[in-house]
C-alpha cells in the first residue's frame, strides 16, 4: 500500500482547531489548507470473511474524515464482495461513458456544453451505495453518472447528449438537464439547485417520508448567495437536507483559494455541522454518505454539510483544455496516484476479492456495454419539430397559440 | 535563410496536416473541440462590415477622443475581430482612466471569450481581477464602486446568468440617482455580458435578456453588431454618465472581423444606424440578426433556384431600409419614425421571444406615431416563446428565411 500522499498531513498543535489539519506541501500545488488526505487506496483490510457471502470488515485511514461540530463516522466499514465488485463495475462503466461522450463531442456529434466527471466517479458511485432508492439527489451540470445511477440508462444519457428523441429529456435538455424520478437533474445555473434541494427535503419531512435529499454543488457554487439562503432555511426548519459540496479544487478556471475566503467548505454551514471526506476513496465516500443519511433520516438531526475532496482530470467542460490554470504534471500525478478506480482495483486484488483477469473482464464488459449504448443512442431519431412546442405549459392549458409566423408555423393548440 | 516558397509551404502544411491526422487517430486529446462561442460563416462575407482602412475610418458617427489633430488619413487601423475590439476598448479605458477596473468571473486569465486577454498582465492584478461565482455580488459590488467614483467595468459571464443580478441592476443601479435626488449615482458602472444564441448553447447559453431590462428606467442597454461598433459603443458606454448594460452577441466574437481604428474613439449611444437606405419597407434589428437580415435582403433580390417560385417578382425590386438599433434603451425613436413615415411598413427582428420583447415596445410606439402612414401592420420576427431547447436552436432563431417571409407578407399586405 505504498502510494505516498502528495503532501504530509500533520496537526500543528493539539489546541489547533481540530477540524483543520495543517498541511505541509511537498510540491507547489494550488491546494491551500486541506483537511483530509486524498489517496484512493489507504483503506486497510481489517478482517477478511471466512465465507464468501460474509462481509469484509475494513478500516479507513484515520485522515479520511474531518469533522465540524459532529462526531466522526466509524472508521470500520463492512462491505460484501458483491458490493465491492458492483462498485468497481459501476465506476468503470461511468468512466467509459464519460470518455465516450468526450469522443462524440470531438467528433462534433454532441454539440453545446458537456461537463465530464472523469476522476470524480467515487462520489457518484459512493453516494449511490450509501442511499436508498427513494432519497432524492439534485446536482449541477456535472451530472451524467448520477443520471445513470439513479435509475437512468447509459443509452438515455448518450441519446440526450446527442439531442435525440431517445434521450431522457427527449433531446430538449441536453447534457445539463437529465432527470429521473429520484434525480432532479442536472441544472445549468450554478447554485440554483441548492434551494430547490432544500424544498424537496421539506416536502419529504412534511409527508413523513423516511428519506432525505442530497443537494449537491461545487466549490465554485459555494459562494452563491442562494446556497446560504438554503442553509438558513434548512437549519431553521430542521430539514433532512444533506448539502454536498463536490470540491474538485477548481471552479472552472479559478482555484478554490482564489474564489473562497474559507476553503474549508464543510465549515461554511455556520450552525450546520459538517463533514469533510476523502472523495477519491470509494469506501470513505460510501461511509460518509451512509453516516449523513443516518444523521438526517434516522436521527433527525436536521441538515449536514458534506464536503467531498475530489478532482477532475478533464477541463471544466469540453471547451476547456484544463491546462491553462493548472500544470499537466498535477493532472498526471492525480491520475496516477489518486485515481479512485485504480485505488479500488488495488483493494480488490490485495484482499483477494478478484484477480487481475477478472477485473480486466469487467473493464471489457463495461466498454462493450457503453459501446452498445452509444450505438443504440445513435440509432435514435431526432425529435420531431412538433415537440418544439410541447411541454411549455401543462397540456391543455396552453395559451391559444404560441406566437410564431402568423400562419402555419405558429402552434395552435385548440 | 530564405523563407519557404509557397510550394514548400503548401507541402509543409500538407505534411503537418497528415501528422496532425495521425496524432488525431492515435490520441484524441490532440483534437481541438469546436469553439464554445460558435461561428457564423456568413458574417465573413457581409457587406456591412468594414474590412478596409478607408471604410473603417469613414464609419459614420465616429468621434475621435484623443488630442491627435492629424487628418483622417493619418490614423491607423488593425484587423480585429469582435473580442479583440472589446479588449482594445477596455485597454484604452484602463490606460486613460486611473480609476477604471475590470472584474468578473475568470477575467484575469483572459476570460472565456478572450475579451480580457492580457489585460491583467498589462494593467496589474489589482485592476483586472476575478470575482467568486456570484452574479448578484458582482453587480452589487460594482454599484458600490461606481457610487464612490470608480469606473467599474463588470462582466457577467453569460447573459443567461444575469438574473441573480437583476435585482441589483433594476432596483439599485437604475434608481439610485432618482431616489437620492441626484446626490448619488452609479453612472460609472458598465456591465458587459455575452448574449444571443450560437446554435448549440441550449437553454442557458443562448438567451437575449434585453427585454427584461427595458423596464429599468435609469439603465441604458447597448448591443453592437461588429468590431468597430463594439469598440466605439463600449467606450461610449463606459464614459456615459449612466449605468449601461453592454450585451455582446457571442457568435460574433470570432465571426465578425474588420479593420478597426486603433485610436480612442466613441460612437454615440441612443442613436440607430441606417445600414442600407431604402424606400419600401423599414427593417429594424440588432446584434446577430443584422446579418440574417442582410442575407434576407439578398434572398429577396436574387433568390436561389429553390426559392425562386416562392418570391413573387413584384417584390424582388423592393428597396428595404435596414436599420441597426444599436441602443435598445433608450431606443432611437426619431430615426425609426422618420423611416417608417417614408416607407409605410415596418418589420422588427430580434432573437428574444415576442411576448414582452423589445419589438412589442417599438411596434406599439410606431403604430401610435405613424398610424396613418402605415400600409401594413407592424410585423415582428422573433424567437419563439419557449425556452431554447438544445436540438431546436436552428428553429428557434429568426433566420433569413423567416425574415424574407415577413418582408414579403408586409410588402404584399
From TrEMBL, chain A:
PANTHER family: PYRUVATE DEHYDROGENASE E1 COMPONENT SUBUNIT ALPHA (PTHR11516:SF60), PYRUVATE DEHYDROGENASE E1 COMPONENT, ALPHA SUBUNIT BACTERIAL AND ORGANELLAR (PTHR11516). NCBIfam families: PDH_E1_alph_y. This is Pyruvate dehydrogenase E1 component subunit alpha. It comes from Ephemerocybe angulata. The pyruvate dehydrogenase complex catalyzes the overall conversion of pyruvate to acetyl-CoA and CO(2). Keywords: Oxidoreductase, Pyruvate, Thiamine pyrophosphate. GO terms for biological process: pyruvate decarboxylation to acetyl-CoA. GO terms for molecular function: pyruvate dehydrogenase (acetyl-transferring) activity. Its EC number is 1.2.4.1. Its cofactor is thiamine diphosphate. Signal peptide: none annotated. Residues 90-385 form the Dehydrogenase E1 component domain. It catalyses: N(6)-[(R)-lipoyl]-L-lysyl-[protein] + pyruvate + H(+) = N(6)-[(R)-S(8)-acetyldihydrolipoyl]-L-lysyl-[protein] + CO2. The keyword Manganese does not apply. Pfam families: E1_dh.
Automatic annotation (TrEMBL), chain B:
It is an enzyme of class 1 (oxidoreductase). Residues 25-44 are annotated as: Disordered. Its cofactor is thiamine diphosphate. Pfam families: Transket_pyr, Transketolase_C. One of its GO terms (molecular function) is branched-chain 2-oxo acid dehydrogenase activity. InterPro entries: THDP-binding, Transketo_C/PFOR_II, Transketolase-like_Pyr-bd, Transketolase_C. Transmembrane segments: none annotated. GO terms for biological process: branched-chain amino acid catabolic process; generation of precursor metabolites and energy; response to nutrient. Keywords: Oxidoreductase, Pyruvate. Its EC number is 1.2.4.4. CDD domains: TPP_PYR_E1-PDHc-beta_like. It comes from the Eukaryota. It comes from Ephemerocybe angulata. Residues 80-255 form the Transketolase-like pyrimidine-binding domain. SMART domains: Transket_pyr (SM00861). This is 3-methyl-2-oxobutanoate dehydrogenase (2-methylpropanoyl-transferring). It catalyses: N(6)-[(R)-lipoyl]-L-lysyl-[protein] + 3-methyl-2-oxobutanoate + H(+) = N(6)-[(R)-S(8)-2-methylpropanoyldihydrolipoyl]-L-lysyl-[protein] + CO2.
Amino acid at each position: 500500500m505504498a502510494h505516498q500522499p502528495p503532501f504530509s498531513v500533520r496537526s500543528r498543535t493539539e489546541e489547533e482547531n481540530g477540524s483543520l489539519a495543517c498541511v505541509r506541501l511537498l510540491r507547489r500545488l494550488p491546494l491551500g489548507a486541506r483537511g483530509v488526505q486524498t489517496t484512493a487506496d489507504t483503506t486497510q483490510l481489517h478482517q477478511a470473511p471466512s465465507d464468501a457471502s460474509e462481509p469484509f470488515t475494513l478500516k479507513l485511514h484515520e485522515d479520511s474524515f474531518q469533522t465540524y461540530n459532529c462526531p466522526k463516522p466509524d472508521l470500520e466499514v463492512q462491505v460484501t464482495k458483491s458490493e465491492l465488485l458492483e462498485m468497481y463495475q459501476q465506476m468503470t462503466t461511468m468512466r467509459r461513458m464519460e470518455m465516450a461522450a468526450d469522443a462524440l463531442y470531438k467528433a462534433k456529434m454532441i454539440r453545446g456544453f458537456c461537463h465530464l466527471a472523469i476522476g470524480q466517479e467515487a462520489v457518484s458511485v459512493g453516494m449511490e451505495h450509501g442511499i436508498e432508492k427513494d432519497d432524492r439527489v439534485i446536482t449541477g451540470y456535472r451530472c451524467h453518472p448520477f443520471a445513470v445511477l439513479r435509475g437512468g440508462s447509459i443509452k438515455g444519457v448518450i441519446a440526450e447528449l446527442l439531442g435525440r428523441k431517445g434521450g431522457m429529456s427527449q433531446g430538449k435538455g441536453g447534457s445539463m438537464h437529465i432527470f429521473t424520478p429520484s434525480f432532479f437533474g442536472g441544472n445549468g445555473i450554478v447554485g440554483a439547485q441548492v434551494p430547490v434541494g432544500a424544498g424537496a427535503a421539506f416536502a419529504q419531512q412534511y409527508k413523513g417520508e423516511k428519506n432525505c435529499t442530497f443537494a449537491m454543488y461545487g466549490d465554485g457554487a459555494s459562494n452563491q448567495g442562494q446556497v446560504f439562503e438554503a442553509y438558513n432555511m434548512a437549519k431553521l426548519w430542521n430539514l433532512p437536507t444533506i448539502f454536498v459540496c463536490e470540491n474538485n479544487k477548481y471552479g472552472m478556471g479559478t482555484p478554490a483559494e482564489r474564489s473562497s475566503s474559507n476553503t474549508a467548505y464543510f465549515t461554511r454551514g455556520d450552525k450546520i455541522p459538517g463533514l469533510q471526506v476523502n472523495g477519491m476513496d470509494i469506501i470513505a465516500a460510501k461511509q460518509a454518505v451512509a453516516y449523513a443519511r443516518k444523521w438526517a433520516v434516522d436521527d433527525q438531526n436536521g441538515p449536514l454539510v458534506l464536503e467531498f475532496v475530489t478532482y477532475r482530470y478533464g477541463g471544466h467542460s469540453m471547451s476547456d483544455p484544463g491546462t491553462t490554470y493548472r500544470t499537466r504534471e498535477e493532472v498526471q500525478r492525480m491520475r496516477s496516484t489518486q485515481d479512485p478506480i485504480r485505488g479500488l482495483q488495488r483493494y480488490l486484488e490485495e484482499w483477494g476479492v478478484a484477480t487481475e483477469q477478472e477485473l480486466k473482464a469487467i473493464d471489457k464488459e463495461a466498454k462493450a456495454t457503453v459501446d452498445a449504448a452509444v450505438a443504440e443512442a445513435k440509432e435514435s431519431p431526432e425529435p420531431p419539430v412538433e415537440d418544439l412546442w410541447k411541454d411549455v405549459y401543462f397540456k391543455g392549458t396552453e395559451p391559444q397559440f404560441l406566437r410564431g409566423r402568423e400562419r402555419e408555423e405558429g402552434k395552435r393548440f385548440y | 535563410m530564405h523563407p519557404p516558397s509557397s510550394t514548400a509551404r503548401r507541402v509543409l502544411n500538407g505534411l503537418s496536416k497528415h501528422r496532425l491526422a495521425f496524432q488525431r487517430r492515435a490520441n484524441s486529446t490532440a483534437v481541438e473541440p469546436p469553439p464554445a462561442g460558435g461561428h457564423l460563416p456568413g458574417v465573413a462575407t457581409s457587406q456591412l462590415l468594414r474590412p478596409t482602412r478607408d471604410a473603417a475610418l469613414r464609419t459614420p458617427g465616429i468621434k475621435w477622443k484623443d488630442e491627435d489633430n492629424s487628418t483622417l488619413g493619418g490614423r491607423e487601423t488593425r484587423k480585429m475581430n469582435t473580442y479583440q475590439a472589446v479588449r482594445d476598448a477596455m485597454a484604452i479605458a484602463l490606460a486613460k482612466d486611473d480609476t477604471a477596473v475590470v472584474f468578473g468571473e475568470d477575467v484575469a486569465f483572459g476570460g472565456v471569450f478572450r475579451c480580457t486577454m492580457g489585460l491583467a498582465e498589462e494593467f496589474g492584478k489589482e485592476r483586472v481581477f476575478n470575482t467568486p461565482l456570484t452574479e448578484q455580488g458582482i453587480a452589487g459590488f460594482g454599484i458600490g464602486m461606481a457610487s464612490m467614483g470608480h469606473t467599474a467595468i463588470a462582466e457577467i459571464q453569460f447573459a443567461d446568468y444575469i438574473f441573480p443580478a437583476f435585482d441589483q441592476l433594476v432596483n439599485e443601479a437604475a434608481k439610485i440617482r432618482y431616489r437620492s435626488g441626484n446626490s448619488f449615482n452609479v453612472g460609472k458602472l458598465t456591465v458587459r455580458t455575452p448574449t444571443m444564441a450560437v446554435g448549440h448553447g441550449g437553454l442557458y447559453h443562448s438567451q437575449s435578456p434585453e427585454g427584461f431590462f427595458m423596464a429599468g428606467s435609469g439603465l441604458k442597454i447597448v448591443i453592437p453588431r461588429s468590431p468597430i461598433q463594439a469598440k466605439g459603443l463600449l467606450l461610449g458606454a463606459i464614459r456615459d454618465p449612466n449605468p449601461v448594460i453592454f450585451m455582446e452577441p457571442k457568435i460574433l466574437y470570432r465571426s465578425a472581423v474588420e479593420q478597426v481604428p486603433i485610436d480612442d474613439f466613441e460612437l454615440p449611444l441612443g442613436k440607430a444606424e441606417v445600414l442600407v437606405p431604402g424606400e419600401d419597407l423599414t427593417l429594424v434589428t440588432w446584434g446577430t440578426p443584422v446579418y440574417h437580415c442582410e442575407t434576407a435582403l439578398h434572398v429577396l433580390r436574387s433568390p436561389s433556384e429553390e426559392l425562386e417560385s416562392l418570391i413573387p417578382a413584384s417584390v424582388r425590386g423592393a428597396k428595404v431600409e435596414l436599420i441597426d438599433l444599436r441602443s435598445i434603451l433608450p431606443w432611437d425613436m426619431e430615426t425609426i419614425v422618420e423611416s417608417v413615415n417614408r416607407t409605410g411598413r415596418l418589420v422588427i427582428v430580434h432573437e428574444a421571444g415576442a411576448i414582452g420583447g423589445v419589438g412589442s415596445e417599438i411596434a406599439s410606439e410606431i403604430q401610435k406615431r405613424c398610424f396613418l402612414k402605415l400600409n401594413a401592420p407592424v410585423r415582428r420576427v422573433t424567437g419563439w416563446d419557449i425556452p431554447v431547447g438544445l436540438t431546436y436552436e436552428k428553429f428557434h432563431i429568426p433566420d433569413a428565411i423567416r425574415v424574407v417571409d415577413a418582408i414579403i407578407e408586409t410588402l404584399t399586405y
